[in-house]
Design goal:
- By secondary structure, the chain is mostly beta strands.
- Helices cover 10% and strands 32% of the residues.
- It starts with a strand and ends in a 5-residue tail after the last helix.
Amino acid sequence: MRQQRNTFRLAPIAATLIAMGATIGTVQAQEVTVTAPALSGWNTENTLTVNGTSQNGQTFIYPTTVLRDTDEAGDSDGTGSVGYISWQLDDGSGREPGIQVVNNLGFDDYKLKHCIMASGLRPDENDPDTLVAKSCGDPQSSAKRYKLVATDAGTGVDLVFDTAEQDLTYRDADPGEDGRVYRVFQKLINDTDERIQALRVELGTGTGGTFTPLDPATTDIGFELRPTIPRTFFGETGDGPDVEVWDPNEYAVFSPSMFYVGDDPADPEFRFDEGFFDTANAGLFPPDEFEVGDQSQYIDSGTAANGDIFGATTANYFDLPANQGAVAEVPITGTVFGYMLPDSQLPTGIYEDEDGDAATEGELVAWWDGNDWRYGQDKDFAIVPDSQLVTWAERPLSEDEVLPGPRYEAALIDDLGSINMDFFIYLGESFDTVNTQTVTMRVIAEPVTGTVAGSDEPLWMSSKAPSLESYLDDGTDDSTTIGGGGGGGCTIGGNRPFDPLLPGLALAALGYLGLRRRWNA
C-alpha cells in the first residue's frame, strides 16, 4: 500500500512575518513524502576489488560467483572476469569500488535527482579544504562517469543493483505517479582487442547464464525512452517546460574533445571547443525505433547494414578520409578509424600542456596517421612541418616538475577507444522489491564479425609514430612510441643507436600516460 506523509514548511518570508506579528495568509508550502521502490546500492556479489586504497585499483566483474571465488583464492588478477571498474579519474576524485547509486538529491536539479555514477570525493565548492561525496548534480567536467572497461567482446558485463523501499519526497504537489528515473553516467572503454560495431544494454535479473530479462510491462522497470517527462513527475510545479530525458543522439558518443560542434547557443549545457577531428558528434546511435516510446527492456545501437557500415557507427568516425578529411591537400590513406578501436590499436597524438603541468589535461594538437603527423579539422588535416615538430620537441613536458608552458608530449589518443554513454532507467511504483531484490544492468560490446572494411589494422600499427625527440637530431626516424593500451610495449627501430634507458622510461610512464588522457563529463 502506498504510504504518504504530508509535511508543511514555512517559507523564510513567512517566518519573518510571524516575528513581526503580521497576518500570514496562504504562504505555506507542502511537501509530500511517500515510500516507493528504489535502487538502493551496487551489489558486489559477483565482483572482486583489488588494490582498493590505490588510484590504480580495480573492481573485476565476473559472470558467476564461482569464477569470482576461484580468482580470489588464486592470484586475484581478474582471471575469469569479463570487465572491470576503474576509479582512476582525471581529477583524482575516484574511490573504491568505482560506482555508487545516488537517491533523492535536492530539488535544485530535479532532472538528476537519482543517478548511477562514479564513487568518490571531491572538494566542497564553499570550502576547498573539505571533501564531500560526489553527487549527480556536481558541475560539468567533474568526473561523474564511472569507467567500465570491457575485456571480453560479445559477453555481457553484469552490474547488479539492490532494490528496496525508500522515502521519495515531492515538493508542492503530489504527481499521483510515484517513480524514479535514474540517469546512468557511464564511460565504456574497449579493452577487448577487438573492434566494436554495436553497444547494447539490458535489464534483468541474475548474472551470466542465469540472466533473465525483465519485461517493463509486467515489472514496472525499464529503460526510459520518453524524450520528455512532465516536471510534476519529479515533484516540481510551476510554469517550466517538461524535463528532457532520452536522446538517442547522446546514447553513445565519443569525447567532445574529439568530435563536437563547439560553443552552441542551442545547447547551453555543453560549452566545449570544436572537436579536434570534426565539428559534428560521432558515436554509435540507436536505430529510429528508439527515438520515441515509454520504457524498453533493452537499448541497442544494432548491427544492421547501414550502407557500407554494419551497425550505427557514424561515418565521420568510421571513414574520416572520405568525409571531413576529404579537404586534406595531401590525401589521408588507410582505415581512419573504422569500427570502434580497441585500446591496443590507438593512434599516437601530440598534446600541448599550456601550463606546463603534467597533472593537468593537455590539448591534442597533432596526430600520427601512419605516414605523417597531421593537424586536425581546424587546419584541414594539413601535414605538420618538421620545423614545427622541432619547436615542440624543444619544449618537452616534464613528469617531475612544472616548467614554463607550453610543453609538449606524445601519448596515445585513448578518447578514440572509449565512449560516453547516457541512458535512463525508469523504476515505477508497482515494482516488487520483495520478490525482485536485485536488478541486473547488462552491458554488451558487440564485436565485428568476419573480415570487413573498417576492421583492418590501421597503418600506425605497422608504421610507428616517430618520437618527438627524434626531430632534435639529424632527422633520422627512430620510430619510437609507446604501445597500445591493450598491452603493447616499447618498439625501437630505425638507424639510430639503441638507448638502453628508453624501454625503462617508457614502461614507467605507460600507466600514467595511458590513463591521463581520458575525457570525463
